Amino acid sequence: MSNPIGFRTLFQKETDRFMSVKIQTLFSPLISSLLYVAVFGLPMQQMPSQIEGISFLEFLIPGLIMMGMISNAFQNSASSLMIAKYSNTIFEILTWPISSFEKVSAYMFAGALRGILVGAITYLAVLPFVALPIESPLIVIVVSALVCSTFSALGIVAGVWAKNFDQMTILNQFLILPLTFLGGVFYSIQRLSPFFQKVTLVNPILYMIDALRYGFLGVSDLPIYFSLSLLVVFQFLAASLAWWVFHSGYRLQT
Amino acid sequence: MHNAIEIHDLEKTYENSFRALKGVSLSVKEGEIFGLLGPNGAGKSTLINILCGVVKKTSGAVKILNHSIPEEHLAAKWILGVVPQELCAEGFFTVHQVLQYQSGFFGIQNNEDYIEEVLTKLDLIDKREEITRHLSGGMKRRLMVAKAMIHRPKILILDEPTAGVDLGLTVSLWNAVKELNDAGVTIILTTHNLREAEEICDRICIIDHGSVIEMGETRELVRILGNTLQMEVSLQELKGEFNLDVPYELERSGSEGRLKINYKEGELPGILKALSTVPARVADLKLREDNLEDIFRRLVGFA
After folding, report:
1. What does pTM read for this prediction?
2. Residue A254 lies in a domain
3. Is A86 on the interface with B (CB under 8 A)?
4. Contact B33/B189 with Cβ under 8 angstroms?
5. What is the pLDDT of residues B155-186, one digit of tens each?
6. How many domains does chain A have?
7. Would an 8 Å CB–CB cutoff place A193 in contact with chain B?
8. How confident is the model over B110-160, as pLDDT tens digits?
9. Integer-rounded Cα radius of gyration of chain A
10. Domains of chain B, with CATH numbers?
11. How many CB pairs under 8 A join A and B?
12. Is A3 on the interface with B (CB under 8 A)?
């Protein structure tokens, strides 16, 4: 029995939630991106990147956009569920006549929307500093949608899994943030020694940043279709895991 | 009449190996007000939480209007409304928004008229635009009831709805519940307040330590189990000592006294005769039938 109105309402509620605190959810990520631009980008503006014909700033910005998208898409579903835990309303999720598939989709799309909005705002805000072209808008859109929905699905898993904000911080600061920084936001992996290149190849975020960079600049470290295929696989795995979490009642039902 | 809820041999053992339900069987008829009574930790909330999908059963069969739980729980959720025991309110939205979302979760797109009606009925209309987190405890409770009934459920479950609630709310709450019941909604409630249950419930199930102790129509239960009557006599101008040939308790202070006598039906004439031998003036005399509270205390054994 499907419940399209229920799905739409949940998506709406999750969207309304982050829109009601825009400063925190949309504009504060912008500040950190702009600071990175100011600290790393502007002084090294004229410095060439490893890649022919592309300045360091141009190289940096797709990585910063990806960083903002990842953390905000993840935060949206994760903190929504954490807040529900702390306000005793998490059990309500179990009482709605909405299927697990519809629930996952609603949380996932709302989180992805926030991620994409943060990405778009970041892009527009850095335009005055660097006229970054978009080489392939289609790739930028597809990569953003895949990555944001992957991380908002993971946010569902994290929000259900974490028993308190401490555990959530562990995920954020000890896993996602290092993987993002080491995934090539600031450098091309070609700069790394062969050993660290190999190590970096197991980091999923590498493919996300590299694919987005391809969309903006038309050049990348790795073959774009390989990265895109991996992103589809990551999305499928993350969404399936989120579905399983709701469907099995893991940590929600006793 | 059909059964709204059918429970057969329901068992629940939690992960910490606490056995909360030990083979409970009961059925709730469509259209009745069914009261689940018992002391703290009796298993009432576990039972209710299994019905609304928060707790997984260990074994046994549960059916909600013929939908088996958990296999057909999604279908059953459409017809359930639940008022949980713990107060809860999310921080971001107003009372009106929360009710709009709740309607939407249950597949209702435009529920404005009914939302207004429910807000009015539960005296929440003034709080319509208030952020739910800022509501007082009583108002939060009203909102929880409003949420549970906003999709016009066929079965409404209330877990301790009057716990920590003032008299005004209790009255408007029970009026709302009775009104819903008159309109055909089946009501299941748990409560500590036995007098309340006695007044409002068609049938009652008393559970303790995870087992059903007694179940039946409220009036029948009171009649069968409550065959003890009590007389309370206020005495004045009491002079000297006396002895009655029926069991009694006397609280005496100077020339005044209070006499309590338990008796069975048919014994009244003998007691009145004995009373006439008491060297005092009878200032007042009260007769009281056993109520549910007395029965409950006797059954659960903490009289």
Report:
1. 0.86
2. no
3. no
4. yes
5. 999 998 877 777 888 888 888 899 999 999 99
6. 1
7. no
8. 999 999 999 998 889 999 999 998 998 888 888 999 999 999 999 999 998
9. 19
10. 3-224 (3.40.50.300), 227-300 (3.30.70)
11. 80
12. yes
